[in-house]
Fold this sequence. Notes:
The structure is a single chain. The chain is of the alpha+beta class. The protein has one domain. Helices cover 62% and strands 9% of the residues. It contains six helices and four strands. It has helices at 6-23, 27-56, 86-104, 121-124, 127-150, 157-176; strands at residues 2-3, 60-64, 69-72, 77-81. Strands 1-2-4-3 form a four-stranded mixed beta sheet, with helices on one face. The longest helix is centred in the first third of the chain and has 30 residues, at 27-56. The radius of gyration is 18 Å and the shape is globular.
Amino acid sequence: MIKFDKQLWLTRAWSRFKRAAYKGTSARRRGEAEKQWFRDVVCIEKLALVVDWCCYRNVTVLFGKKEGGSYDSITKVVTMAGRNRPEKQLYILLHECGHHLIGYDEKDERFGIGYPHCGDANINTTFHHRLACLEEEIEAWARGWRLAKRLLLNLDRAAFDVVRVDCLKSYVKWANSKALLTSV
Length: 184
């Protein structure tokens, strides 16, 4: 696990650009690689702003090999996939910040304490529990988007939604699975 290092991320983006730009000799291929490199650099700048926002709130952001992302509200640690493109990392980090914001405001009656965590499989496998988890995931994406607006990140909503929907699909499938599901 490593912490965010803007210079390292920029170096990686440049390396990806060089590999992509010189794989083919066509101007079209080089142009596409250049656009992607520029998009990566812009997203790295925005990612740095969100990481700074996290640091200001004593939230540690770590990158590793594991896919996706997670937020531990007790230790205030976000762990994320370090191999994703900077744009996807940015969107997932905003989502994980949304989880922090959900737990941060104790006045929020519905989400102030997060979804119910329990060691009892009879509770954790109920549809009620799974629906509560799905609701929090959706709310975390909404709060992440609002955070991006507050930070004036000027994100592409359609690109954000592609990542959001892709991530939420697995939760919808999990919440609806009947293999472990018991009644409320």
